[in-house]
Structures are given as structure tokens and as C-alpha cells.
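Same chain as my last thread, 170 residues:
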Amino acid sequence: MRVSLGMRKIVVGVMGPGEGAIASDREMAYQLGKLIAEAGWVLLTGGRKTGVMEAASRGAKAAGGFVVGVLPGNDTRGVSEAVDLAIVTDLGNGRNNINVLSCDGIIACGMGLGTASEVALALKNGKMVVLLNCDRITREFWLRLGGGKVAIAETPDEAIAWVENAIATS
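reply #2:
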């Protein structure tokens, strides 16, 4: 049974590399998007048509989900066609704080500098982060810094289970 927050939709963010995403990042992100949509949750990404953002958005759309994209620029150029609601921020990387603060659950799929900033901002704000498809050194780094607020998932299904548990117990 999926958790809910009453009338408000649960928002789950999938963060990850854009241009630097590797094939396994994109494959897992697509699956995450599907699972988020199948749970009846809203997917939030960085909104661009590249990497993890694009793959997760396409996965959610394939499963009939609703996708929010929080864009760094002052217009919608480069937005994924799978985004239902594009939020234009004109904040550049500052939009990463909006991304994590707007989510009930956060999954980092792969790792790059932008993703690292989102993970750090989430942890600074007391939010749990699930790491998926990250190497051993990356996992150890975030576990040391984040303590009990970092979970490690091996599969998209496991990541969703961690998010669901975190939402249910918060």
C-alpha cells in the first residue's frame, strides 16, 4: 500500500547528472519515473531534456504520471517534452534548493557536481536522500556526512521502498 499525505500529492525528486549521465543512470532513472507515476506520486526533476532528468520524466509519462521540471534559466528552452509543469526560475544552480525543498522524497541517481549540491542541500535541510547507482567512494562520502539521513539502494524498486518508508515515518 502506498503512503499518502491526505489531499496533497506526494512529490518525489529524481536528481542526477545531465550531460554526464551514463547509460545505467538513464536506465534506472527511467524505471524510477515509472515507479513514481505508478505510485500516484508527482515526479520533480531539473526539467531539462538531458540525462537523468529526461529519462525519469519519460518514464513517468510512459506510466501516465505528472512531471514537474524546475528549470535553471529564464525561459523554457531545453525543457523535456515529458514535463507537464515547467517552473522557470532564472536562478541557475540556485534552483537546486527549490528542487530539494519541494520534495517529500529525494533519490540521487548517479552523481555529478549538480547532484552533489542537491544532496548536500537536502541533508542540510534534514531531508533523507536515497543514493542509487553511485560508486563505493561516493556512497561512503555521503554516508559519513549524512549519517542516518542517507540510504543506499541497489535497484529502483529498493529506492522507492526507502522513499515510501521515509515518507510514512516522517
